[in-house]
Inverse folding.
Protein backbone atom coordinates (compact mmCIF):
# COMPACT_ATOMS: atom_id res chain seq x y z
CA UNK A 1 0.00 0.00 0.00
CA UNK A 2 1.23 3.45 -0.80
CA UNK A 3 2.38 5.38 2.26
CA UNK A 4 0.49 8.51 1.24
CA UNK A 5 -2.59 7.44 3.20
CA UNK A 6 -0.55 7.26 6.37
CA UNK A 7 1.05 10.58 5.49
CA UNK A 8 -2.36 12.18 4.99
CA UNK A 9 -3.23 11.26 8.56
CA UNK A 10 0.26 12.12 9.80
CA UNK A 11 1.01 8.69 11.28
CA UNK A 12 3.60 5.98 10.61
CA UNK A 13 2.77 2.60 9.10
CA UNK A 14 3.57 1.01 12.44
CA UNK A 15 1.03 3.18 14.24
CA UNK A 16 -1.53 1.43 16.43
CA UNK A 17 -5.23 1.56 15.68
CA UNK A 18 -5.76 4.02 18.53
CA UNK A 19 -3.08 6.35 17.15
CA UNK A 20 -4.67 6.22 13.70
CA UNK A 21 -8.10 6.92 15.09
CA UNK A 22 -6.82 9.81 17.23
CA UNK A 23 -5.06 11.35 14.23
CA UNK A 24 -8.23 11.04 12.14
CA UNK A 25 -10.39 12.66 14.82
CA UNK A 26 -7.89 15.48 15.34
CA UNK A 27 -7.74 16.22 11.60
CA UNK A 28 -11.55 16.10 11.27
CA UNK A 29 -11.81 18.71 13.99
CA UNK A 30 -9.04 20.82 12.51
CA UNK A 31 -10.54 20.91 8.99
CA UNK A 32 -14.21 20.86 9.94
CA UNK A 33 -15.13 23.51 7.35
CA UNK A 34 -13.19 22.06 4.38
CA UNK A 35 -15.40 19.42 2.77
CA UNK A 36 -12.78 18.16 0.30
CA UNK A 37 -10.18 17.81 3.03
CA UNK A 38 -12.66 15.93 5.22
CA UNK A 39 -13.44 13.51 2.39
CA UNK A 40 -9.73 12.99 1.82
CA UNK A 41 -9.16 12.26 5.52
CA UNK A 42 -12.05 9.76 5.62
CA UNK A 43 -10.82 8.07 2.44
CA UNK A 44 -7.31 7.74 3.89
CA UNK A 45 -8.70 6.34 7.13
CA UNK A 46 -10.90 3.81 5.28
CA UNK A 47 -7.99 2.75 3.06
CA UNK A 48 -5.77 2.16 6.10
CA UNK A 49 -8.48 0.12 7.81
CA UNK A 50 -9.00 -2.02 4.71
CA UNK A 51 -5.24 -2.50 4.36
CA UNK A 52 -4.95 -3.55 8.01
CA UNK A 53 -7.85 -5.98 7.61
CA UNK A 54 -6.26 -7.53 4.53
CA UNK A 55 -2.91 -7.86 6.31
CA UNK A 56 -4.61 -9.46 9.30
CA UNK A 57 -6.37 -11.99 7.10
CA UNK A 58 -3.08 -12.83 5.40
CA UNK A 59 -1.44 -13.33 8.79
CA UNK A 60 0.95 -10.42 8.40
CA UNK A 61 -0.37 -8.73 11.55
CA UNK A 62 -0.36 -10.63 14.82
CA UNK A 63 -3.51 -9.92 16.77
CA UNK A 64 -3.07 -9.89 20.57
CA UNK A 65 -4.67 -12.80 22.43
CA UNK A 66 -6.94 -10.44 24.37
CA UNK A 67 -8.54 -9.25 21.14
CA UNK A 68 -8.75 -12.62 19.44
CA UNK A 69 -10.12 -14.48 22.45
CA UNK A 70 -11.71 -11.97 24.82
CA UNK A 71 -13.58 -14.72 26.68
CA UNK A 72 -10.24 -15.95 28.08
CA UNK A 73 -9.69 -12.64 29.86
CA UNK A 74 -13.17 -12.10 31.28
CA UNK A 75 -13.77 -13.66 34.70
CA UNK A 76 -16.80 -15.89 35.09
CA UNK A 77 -19.98 -14.07 36.10
CA UNK A 78 -20.50 -13.52 39.81
CA UNK A 79 -23.70 -15.55 39.80
CA UNK A 80 -21.81 -18.62 38.60
CA UNK A 81 -19.38 -18.42 41.52
CA UNK A 82 -22.15 -18.01 44.10
CA UNK A 83 -23.03 -21.19 45.97
CA UNK A 84 -26.04 -22.96 44.59
CA UNK A 85 -29.20 -22.68 46.64
CA UNK A 86 -30.10 -25.87 48.46
CA UNK A 87 -33.84 -25.31 48.17
CA UNK A 88 -35.75 -27.16 45.45
CA UNK A 89 -36.39 -25.47 42.11
CA UNK A 90 -40.18 -25.32 42.60
CA UNK A 91 -39.65 -23.45 45.88
CA UNK A 92 -37.22 -21.00 44.26
CA UNK A 93 -39.86 -20.28 41.60
CA UNK A 94 -42.51 -19.72 44.29
CA UNK A 95 -40.55 -17.43 46.63
CA UNK A 96 -40.07 -13.77 45.68
CA UNK A 97 -37.39 -11.39 46.99
CA UNK A 98 -39.10 -8.01 46.64
CA UNK A 99 -37.48 -4.60 46.95
CA UNK A 100 -38.42 -2.60 50.07
CA UNK A 101 -40.71 -0.35 48.02
CA UNK A 102 -42.62 -3.43 46.83
CA UNK A 103 -43.23 -4.42 50.45
CA UNK A 104 -44.34 -1.02 51.74
CA UNK A 105 -47.22 -0.43 49.32
CA UNK A 106 -49.04 -3.70 50.16
CA UNK A 107 -48.20 -3.16 53.85
CA UNK A 108 -49.94 0.21 53.72
CA UNK A 109 -53.04 -1.24 52.07
CA UNK A 110 -53.36 -4.22 54.42
CA UNK A 111 -52.45 -2.08 57.43
CA UNK A 112 -55.22 0.37 56.60
CA UNK A 113 -57.74 -2.44 56.17
CA UNK A 114 -56.60 -4.00 59.46
CA UNK A 115 -57.00 -0.73 61.36
CA UNK A 116 -60.45 -0.12 59.86
CA UNK A 117 -61.49 -3.64 60.82
CA UNK A 118 -60.11 -3.38 64.35
CA UNK A 119 -61.74 -0.05 65.21
CA UNK A 120 -65.03 -0.73 63.43
CA UNK A 121 -68.07 -0.85 65.69
CA UNK A 122 -70.63 -1.64 62.99
CA UNK A 123 -70.22 -5.41 63.02
CA UNK A 124 -69.62 -8.42 60.85
CA UNK A 125 -70.65 -6.75 57.58
CA UNK A 126 -67.68 -4.34 57.76
CA UNK A 127 -65.34 -7.24 58.49
CA UNK A 128 -66.65 -9.14 55.48
CA UNK A 129 -66.29 -6.09 53.24
CA UNK A 130 -62.76 -5.34 54.45
CA UNK A 131 -61.79 -9.00 54.04
CA UNK A 132 -63.16 -8.97 50.48
CA UNK A 133 -61.12 -5.81 49.78
CA UNK A 134 -58.05 -7.54 51.23
CA UNK A 135 -58.55 -10.55 48.95
CA UNK A 136 -58.91 -8.20 45.98
CA UNK A 137 -55.74 -6.32 46.97
CA UNK A 138 -53.75 -9.55 47.34
CA UNK A 139 -55.00 -10.75 43.98
CA UNK A 140 -54.01 -7.43 42.39
CA UNK A 141 -50.50 -7.40 43.89
CA UNK A 142 -49.80 -11.01 42.93
CA UNK A 143 -51.15 -10.61 39.39
CA UNK A 144 -49.12 -7.42 38.92
CA UNK A 145 -45.86 -9.33 39.51
CA UNK A 146 -46.21 -12.11 36.96
CA UNK A 147 -49.35 -11.35 35.00
CA UNK A 148 -50.67 -14.87 35.62
CA UNK A 149 -54.21 -14.45 36.93
CA UNK A 150 -54.96 -18.15 37.55
CA UNK A 151 -51.86 -18.66 39.66
CA UNK A 152 -52.53 -15.39 41.51
CA UNK A 153 -56.09 -16.50 42.28
CA UNK A 154 -54.94 -19.87 43.65
CA UNK A 155 -52.27 -18.25 45.83
CA UNK A 156 -54.71 -15.63 47.11
CA UNK A 157 -57.40 -18.16 48.01
CA UNK A 158 -54.81 -20.43 49.64
CA UNK A 159 -53.52 -17.46 51.65
CA UNK A 160 -57.06 -16.53 52.68
CA UNK A 161 -57.87 -20.05 53.89
CA UNK A 162 -54.51 -20.33 55.67
CA UNK A 163 -55.04 -16.95 57.33
CA UNK A 164 -58.53 -17.82 58.52
CA UNK A 165 -57.44 -21.21 59.88
CA UNK A 166 -54.35 -19.75 61.56
CA UNK A 167 -56.45 -16.93 63.01
CA UNK A 168 -58.99 -19.40 64.39
CA UNK A 169 -56.22 -21.48 65.98
CA UNK A 170 -54.47 -18.45 67.47
CA UNK A 171 -57.75 -16.99 68.74
CA UNK A 172 -57.90 -19.90 71.19
CA UNK A 173 -54.65 -18.65 72.73
CA UNK A 174 -54.94 -14.85 72.73
CA UNK A 175 -57.48 -12.36 71.45
CA UNK A 176 -55.60 -9.20 72.54
CA UNK A 177 -58.83 -7.53 73.67
CA UNK A 178 -60.56 -8.01 70.29
CA UNK A 179 -63.57 -10.05 69.32
CA UNK A 180 -62.79 -13.43 67.82
CA UNK A 181 -63.97 -12.33 64.33
CA UNK A 182 -61.76 -9.22 64.35
CA UNK A 183 -58.74 -11.20 65.53
CA UNK A 184 -59.20 -13.81 62.78
CA UNK A 185 -59.60 -11.03 60.18
CA UNK A 186 -56.35 -9.35 61.32
CA UNK A 187 -54.41 -12.62 61.07
CA UNK A 188 -55.92 -13.22 57.62
CA UNK A 189 -54.74 -9.74 56.52
CA UNK A 190 -51.25 -10.51 57.78
CA UNK A 191 -51.10 -13.81 55.86
CA UNK A 192 -52.49 -12.16 52.71
CA UNK A 193 -49.82 -9.48 53.02
CA UNK A 194 -47.11 -12.16 53.30
CA UNK A 195 -48.51 -14.01 50.29
CA UNK A 196 -48.80 -10.90 48.12
CA UNK A 197 -45.27 -9.72 48.94
CA UNK A 198 -43.19 -12.88 49.17
CA UNK A 199 -44.86 -15.32 46.78
CA UNK A 200 -45.17 -15.20 43.02
Amino acid sequence: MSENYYEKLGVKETASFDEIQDARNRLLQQYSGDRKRLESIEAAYDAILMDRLRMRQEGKIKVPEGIRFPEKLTPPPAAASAPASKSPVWLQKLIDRPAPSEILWPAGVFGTLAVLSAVSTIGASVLQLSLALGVGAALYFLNRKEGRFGRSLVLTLTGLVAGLVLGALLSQVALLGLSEEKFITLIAFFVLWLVSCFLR
Residues 65 and 72 are 9 Å apart (CA to CA). The mean pLDDT is 80.
